[in-house]
């Protein structure tokens, strides 16, 4: 297993960031809307035909041809590599329609997990084998595998989708306890310009984008059947298969699980609400979701915390959360100070902490050879919120003069603090 940042496993922005791709997308927009309406009408007929016809080779061929009209194309490297005797297929999870696409190649059953069993889940191709109770689910899956002539199981041990471009989520062990032999399936999904999925998006949104765009290509690669070694645990079996699939896909296997993705999505949503990433994303030229994720990642970095504290010492009336949000984007103390002084970053000033009065001790020499008195209470009129008004009189000092005064104020406070610690 290799350790990478969890944010690299997901895509945060549906549309491309470069100007040329956005221009081409705007030119395609009218045609895409017409295609969306047409494919929605055709999609209803595909669903009716798939529900009416019995599961057979003829049905899969007809549905596959109609799905190509909907923009869903599926290809496989070599059909002979698929093990006809395999009872469990293990596949990585990229989109909410992976099981539907693989069902166009061979008949399979995908059990329903977590979601309630409704008509909608049945229409999406899931089978309820006891989702509410894991022992019941395992018992049903083992029973299905032991039945002669029953379709094999198609399982997604990641249990959550990723971008499919950087790494695999940690495989759950329960799919590997059903049968001692499994056949891994490496799935790659691609489409022009637009991401195939975005963290936090629903399956309905992904379906609309599938109908809107020209095509989505699913590439299936069959790996050799793997069997559990003698004395090998189910967890070791799962890790070994995960490594093999990661190598085949050209990505890394990670220790992050579905629960980690859920927690990451919650943190991302919280950052979006608290820090206002839209303004930060526009200022930095970075996509909104990616900026928020980067802010969340750098917020806990000790280096950025130290930089934020330095800015806080210079501008004590600025909230620390605002400073940390801008530091995460600029990564520069001077740039953040300039943004706050020029009003690029909006904030509500807060009262600086009161300095407790103390009896004046004897003066001590400063590092520069001069004497600084602890009794002199430093005041920083240039950092007062009243000087940041809109009138000309309140802004009589130039930007450079204010910055120089603020730096001098911070330097004197630092020297005083150092002298107090030495004494």
Task: Give your account of this protein's structure.
With about 425 residues, the chain is of the alpha/beta class. About 45% of the residues lie in helices and about 10% in strands. The chain has helices spanning about 20-50, 55-70, 100, 120-125, 135-145, 205-210, 235-250, 260-275, 275-285, 290-300, 300-315, 320-330, 335-340, 400-420; strands at about 70-75, 90, 110, 125, 155, 165-170, 180-190, 215-220, 225, 250-255, 365, 370. The strands form four sheets. Strands 1, 2, 5, 7, 8 and 9 form a six-stranded mixed beta sheet that branches. It has a two-stranded parallel ribbon with strand order 3-4. A two-stranded parallel ribbon has the order 6-10. The two termini are about 50 Å apart. Keywords: Endoplasmic reticulum, Lipid droplet, Membrane, Transmembrane, Transmembrane helix. One of its GO terms (molecular function) is ubiquitin binding. InterPro entries: AUP1_CUE (IPR048056), CUE (IPR003892). Belongs to the AUP1 family.
Describe what is shown at a glance:
The protein is of the alpha/beta class and 423 residues long. It has 14 helices and twelve strands. Belongs to the AUP1 family.
């Amino acid at each position: 297993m290799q350790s990478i940042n969890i944010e690299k496993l997901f895509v945060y922005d549906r549309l491309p960031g470069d100007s040329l791709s956005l221009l081409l997308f705007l030119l395609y927009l009218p045609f895409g809307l017409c295609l969306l309406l047409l494919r929605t009408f055709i999609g209803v007929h595909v669903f009716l035909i798939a529900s009416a016809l019995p599961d057979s080779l003829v049905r899969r061929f007809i549905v596959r041809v109609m799905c190509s009209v909907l923009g869903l194309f599926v290809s496989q490297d070599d059909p002979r590599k698929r093990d006809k005797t395999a009872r469990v297929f293990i596949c990585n999870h990229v989109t909410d329609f992976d099981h539907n696409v693989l069902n166009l190649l061979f008949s399979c059953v995908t059990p329903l997990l977590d979601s309630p069993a409704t008509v909608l889940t049945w229409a999406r191709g899931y089978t309820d084998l006891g989702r509410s109770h894991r022992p019941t689910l395992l018992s049903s899956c083992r029973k299905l595998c032991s039945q002669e002539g029953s379709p094999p199981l198609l399982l997604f041990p990641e249990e959550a989708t990723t971008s499919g471009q950087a790494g695999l989520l940690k495989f759950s062990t329960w799919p590997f306890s059903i049968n001692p032999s499994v056949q891994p399936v490496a799935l790659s999904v691609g489409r022009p310009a637009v991401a195939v999925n975005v963290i936090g998006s629903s399956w309905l949104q992904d379906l609309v984008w599938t109908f809107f765009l020209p095509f989505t290509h699913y590439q299936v690669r069959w790996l050799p059947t793997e069997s559990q070694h003698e004395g090998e645990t189910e967890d070791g079996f799962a890790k070994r298969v995960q490594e093999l699939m990661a190598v085949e896909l050209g990505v890394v296997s990670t220790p992050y699980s579905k629960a980690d993705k859920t927690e990451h999505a919650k943190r991302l949503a919280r950052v979006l609400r608290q820090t206002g990433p839209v303004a930060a994303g526009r200022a930095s030229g970075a996509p909104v979701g990616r900026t928020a994720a980067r802010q969340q990642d750098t917020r806990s970095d000790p280096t950025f915390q130290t930089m934020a504290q330095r800015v806080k010492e210079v501008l004590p009336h600025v909230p620390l959360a605002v400073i940390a949000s801008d530091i995460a984007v600029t990564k520069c103390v001077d740039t953040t100070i300039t943004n706050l002084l020029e009003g690029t970053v909006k904030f509500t000033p807060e009262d600086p902490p009161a300095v407790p009065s103390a009896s004046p001790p004897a003066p001590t020499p400063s590092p520069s050879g001069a004497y600084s008195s602890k009794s002199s209470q430093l005041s920083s009129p240039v950092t007062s919120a009243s000087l940041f008004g809109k009138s000309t009189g309140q802004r009589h000092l130039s930007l450079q003069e204010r910055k120089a005064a603020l730096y001098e104020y911070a330097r004197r406070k630092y020297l005083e603090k150092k002298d107090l610690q030495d004494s």
